[in-house]
Amino acid sequence: MPAKIIDGKAIAATLREDCAKEAARLVRDHGVTPGLAVVLVGSDPASQVYVRSKGKQTRAAGMASFEHVLPAEVSEADLLAVIDKLNRDPAVHGILVQLPLPKSLDSQKIVAAIDPAKDVDGLHPINAGRLATGLPALTPCTPLGCIILTKSVHASLQGMNAVVIGRSNLVGRPLLQLLLNENATVTIAHSRTRDLASVCRNADLLYAAVGQKEMVRGDWIKPGATVIDIGITRVPGADGKDRLIGDVAYDEALQVAGAITPVPGGVGQMTVACLLVNTLRAASAIHRLPPPKV
Ligand code: NDP
Question: Is 292 exposed, middle or buried (0-12, 13-18, 19+ CB in 10 A)?
């Protein structure tokens, strides 16, 4: 029987609706309009698309959206001044600096300048450290989305063997921590892993976050496993528009896995929805209100 297709589009739409309800409740009961500021440096077309989509979805959820577009040649001091202003702005509860930044800027220094309480990308060392030590933290949106998608299939991940391919600060490492919090047994693989295929064959839950199209073949997958494909590679399509290809050979995996996310229509949809979740969490914490019910 072919795998169940995990419908990230539908799950993300429900999550966005839940976020809109929570945002309306914060406005109604506490006079707090959650606000998200996105800072874009330069004119990378993919980043522009992401920033536009984030602004649109933020407004659609009844939250305030602030966009700051700076030229690629902006100085570090000027960018830090924008972040400082947003850190002090009471209307802003979440700050996201769209990555990657131009090479002339030190991303780590810029991310570290964001107030950790407003760090809705969850990349500040304080949030990464809190997550790694099991404390409540704002966590990166893509791994958060991966957990929600997995839990749409398995109510509990306790005791399951999870394999994460990729160890970036953005995806693999925080995903490892979130899976540990769910009491899964986690293996993290990377470019130096020996015999990756047999490591993957042990996975009840397999997460691929590499960026190499169709690297994970059908015979790497344990029959019945849940496969979450995070990777995105853009290839030119016949119609001139880019096509997105995942890290998993989808047609092969469909015959073996128990459940699988498509690309597109899987993890990508969840990332922005989880940004709304994090903005609500940040707004509630800043105003010393109970966490939102999302
Ligand atoms: P990085 O390039 O930062 O990390 C890639 C990871 O893959 C590294 O840990 C690297 O290992 C590992 N890797 C590379 N080649 C191999 C290999 N042959 N075998 C095993 N592991 C390998 O990427 P990101 O984590 O930022 O993103 C990963 C993918 O997810 C990308 O395609 C990106 O576009 C996508 N993505 C999708 C999002 C979404 O919303 N759907 C959001 C964020 C990312 P090593 O550490 O040893 O170099």
Answer: buried
Q: H or E segment at 53? A: helix 45-60
Residues 175 and 238 in one domain: yes
Residue 192 CB–ligand 1 contact under 6 Å: yes
Ligand 1 mean position, distance from CA 168 (Å): 7
The range of the structural domain enclosing residue 227 comes to 141-269
**β-strand partners of 163:** 187, 206
Contact 275, 282 (CB under 8 A): no
54 is catalytic: yes
Q: Residue 40: inside a domain, yes or no?
A: yes
- The one-letter code for the residue type at 284 is S
Q: What is the pLDDT of residue 284?
A: 98
What was the pLDDT predicted at 1? 86
Q: Is 232 in the pocket of ligand 1 (CB under 6 A)?
A: yes
Distance 8 CA to ligand 1 centre (A): 20
Count CB neighbours of 197 within 10 A.
12
What confidence tens digit (pLDDT) does each residue in 150-163 have? 999 999 999 999 99
CATH number, domain of 199, equals 3.40.50.720
pTM: 0.97
- What CATH number does the domain containing 46 carry? 3.40.50.10860
What residues in the chain have per-residue pLDDT under 50? none
